Amino acid sequence: MTTKQIGTAAGATGEDRPDRTDRRDHVGVLAKALRLIEAFDAAHVRMTSSEAARRTGTTPAAARRCLLTLCELGYAQTDGKRFSLSHGMLRLSYAYASSTRLPRLLQPALDTLSERTRESASLSVLHQAQVRVAARSTARRSMTVGLGVGSRLPLACSASGRVLMAAQPPDEREALLRSCLPLQALTPHTLTDPVRLRRLLRRVAEQGHALCDEELEPGVRSIAVPLHDGQGRLVGALALASRADRMTCIEMVEQLLPAMLRTQAMVARQLGGVGAEMGPPPGLT
């Protein structure tokens, strides 16, 4: 399973998010520009305005105007026919990284956990029914699955997605599950039966952790636990990933879960004084 396939399976464009044109404060041009930015990924590095328009559900003329404006502002570039994002996009990623406290606060905990377990550690959050990697730390000997900060993960078949879904109230959990239907088989091991997934999510909610056994990418297993702030509000998911030939799922639970639970408790204490600044728990909006 490649990063390109993972991003596509998780929802690569804004087409599945309705335009809230009934809101008086909604700025349609800004919404189009942001959807155009999101339309670029590993499978769509360079696009014509017509290709970008098809991916975002807008007209080629409107897409071209937005793309040319992004070029003028330094966020995109063009050879006269095709457009691509430019290094100016780093200004946006820097603005998020430098102004959002959660990744900055938890990066040291991720680094420590990754170093102690010698596995890849990540912090993921739930945003608009999608799982986004918000911070990541990779140990020296650990494999990497090609997922960086901002990458999308499928809700239904990633360990992080499952703990984030399982931590929701039953009605929101069901709404999230329905947003994943029909379940896609990303590997021969992917669970695609909604009934079995519902049972699995209930078990995840009871046991407090989730596993992904080569369901997202062949040869990769992962384990995740939910993260809460000092007020008990869900703020994200902590995950460790390992090569399947190095560790079984049982061994992950026995050898990795205790360290993850210690990190989980430490994060709750660390966020005890800043929970109010994190905003409400992530949901469907």
What characteristics describe this protein?
Beta-Lactamase; six-stranded antiparallel sheet; 285 residues; disordered N terminus; alpha+beta; Arc Repressor Mutant, subunit A
Structure notes:
This protein has helices at residues 3-10, 28-39, 49-56, 60-72, 90-99, 101-117, 159-166, 170-180, 194-207, 249-255, 257-270, and strands at 47-48, 76-78, 82-85, 120-127, 130-137, 152-153, 210-213, 220-228, 234-243. By secondary structure, the chain is of the alpha+beta class. The chain has 2 domains: 3-88, Arc Repressor Mutant, subunit A (Orthogonal Bundle); 100-278, 2-Layer Sandwich (Beta-Lactamase). It has a 6-stranded antiparallel sheet with strand order 6-5-4-9-8-7, with helices on both faces. A 3-stranded antiparallel sheet has the order 1-3-2. A hairpin with a 5-residue loop joins β8 and β9. It is globular and about 55 Å long.
Q: Would you summarize the structure shown here?
A:
This protein has helices spanning 3-10, 28-39, 49-56, 60-72, 90-99, 101-117, 159-166, 170-180, 194-207, 249-255, 257-270, and strands at residues 47-48, 76-78, 82-85, 120-127, 130-137, 152-153, 210-213, 220-228, 234-243. The protein has 285 residues and is α+β, with helices and mostly antiparallel strands. It has two domains: 3-88, Arc Repressor Mutant, subunit A; 100-278, Beta-Lactamase (2-Layer Sandwich), CATH 3.30.450.40.
Q: Return the domain count.
A: 2
- Indicate the overall shape: globular
Class inferred from helices and paired strands: alpha+beta
Biggest sheet layout: 6 strands, antiparallel
CATH superfamily of the largest domain: GAF domain
Q: Tell me the quaternary state.
A: single chain
Radius of gyration: 19 Å
What order do the strands of the largest sheet run in, or round the barrel if closed? 6-5-4-9-8-7
Total E-strand runs = 9
- Do you know the CATH topology of the largest domain? Beta-Lactamase
How big a fraction of the residues is strand?
Answer: 15-25%
